[in-house]
Design brief:
This protein has 200 residues and is an all-alpha fold. It contains eight helices and two strands, in the order βααααααααβ.
Length: 200
């Protein structure tokens, strides 16, 4: 009987896995420290501290992912999974028809979702930093945006909240895609992001 380990290969490197799970934790802390279950446990100052530092950590993770997308190993690189709209739509149609091919790295639809998540998070973070500087007079943009008008602050707050909520919706879509693909190809994709290994 063959050893199942011999039929597996490493796809997700340790830094990608650490990035992935760190981003999950940082985003959830940032999102739910603004409004959610933490409100009954912590006062406003602690919630603000958690929110701000989770945002900083998320920003650092995004910078890492950008660099790693060009310098990391094969399956971490954008060139491995960023595809054009036609290929993404064709793959998505084939997924719905239960005949999509299996990919070792991100498939075209998964790649489009990753880029969407990274862009949405980036806008959320930039708007958050702008809001922090304009409204609180704190953070790296405070010198530029301090004493902003109420209209400007309200507009930035709307953008920050919209893209934070959009990111959460994309996360839910990402999870649905993972479950669907796991069932379609009979492999546990969430487990692969823990171990880094997939069936060859």
């Amino acid at each position: 009987m063959s050893n199942p380990k011999t039929t597996e290969i490493t796809v997700w490197d340790p830094l990608i896995r650490l990035f992935h799970w760190s981003l999950v934790v940082a985003f959830m802390l940032a999102y739910f420290s603004q409004e959610g279950p933490f409100e009954d446990l912590l006062d406003g100052a602690w919630l603000q501290l958690i929110h701000v530092w989770s945002g900083y950590i998320t920003a650092g993770l995004l910078v890492f992912r950008l660099i790693w997308g060009f310098t990391g190993p094969r399956y971490a690189r954008f060139s491995d999974f960023v595809r054009g709209p036609r290929e993404v739509l064709t793959y998505t149609k084939n997924v719905l028809l239960l005949r999509a091919p299996r990919y070792l790295g991100h498939n075209p639809a998964g790649g489009a979702m990753i880029i969407s998540l990274l862009l949405s998070l980036t806008v959320t973070i930039v708007a958050g930093l702008m809001l922090y500087g304009a409204d609180q007079g704190l953070g790296p943009l405070a010198g530029l945006l301090m004493n902003g008008s109420d209209g400007f602050i309200d507009a930035i707050e709307e953008i920050h909240e919209f893209f934070a909520n959009l990111t959460l919706i994309l996360v839910v879509g990402h999870l649905v895609g993972i479950v669907w693909e796991s069932l379609l190809h009979r492999e546990n994709l969430a487990h692969a992001m823990i171990t880094g290994r997939k069936r060859a």
